[in-house]
Amino acid sequence: MKNRLRELRAERGWSQAELADRLEVSRQSVNAIETGKYDPSLPLAFRLARLFTMRIEDIFTEEV
Amino acid sequence: MERESRPPMNCLKMNPAIRRYLFRFLTAMSAYVALLLAVGKYFHRFHPHGPLAYTLAVLPAIAIIASIVTVGLYLAEEKDEFQRNLFIQALLWGLGGVMAVTSVWSMLELFTHIPHFQPIWTYSCFWIFTGISTPFLKRRYR
Fold it and tell me: Is B15's CB within 8 Å of A32's CB?
C-alpha cells in the first residue's frame, strides 16, 4: 500500500520520533509504515487518520 | 531513509512491555539455571528414587515453561503491533530453525553414527535461531 505519511508528517514539522510518540508506537514502526514495508492494521490506520484529521483512504492508497 | 534528530541512547529506549518481558524472562531463566544446578547437585549427592526423583527432575522444566509463558504475556501486552509482528516473525524463524535442525539430525542419527541429539538442547537451539533472525528481520524494515 502507498501512503502519504511522510508528506503529512513533514507538513506538520514532526519527526518520525514525534509521530511515533503521538501514536504510542516505536519510531521503527513509523519508518516501516512510511517506507511501505509494513501495512498497519485497521485500528492503527484509524489512529493515524484521527491524528491527521483525514480519512484513511486519503492517507493510504492501494497499489495497483 | 530520512535522518532523524534524536537524543543519544534513543536506541536503548524500551517500552514497558519489553521491559516487563525482559525482567520476567531473565527471572525465569535465572530460576532455570539455579534449579538445574541445585537438582543436579541433589541427584549427585542423594541419588533420589521414585516420585521424589520425578518431581525434582521436572523442576527445571517448570522454569522453562514459565519463560514460554512470558513470551505469551509479552505478545498479549505489546501495544506496538509492528514490534509484535517482528517478534512473531523471529519466533517463527526460531521454530523453523529448530525443526529443520532436529529433522536433519534425526535422519543422520537414523542412518549414520553421529552422537544423539539431547532434547534438552532444543529450547536453546530455538532461541539461537530466534536471536539470529532478529537483526536480519529488523534490517528488512530499516
Answer: no
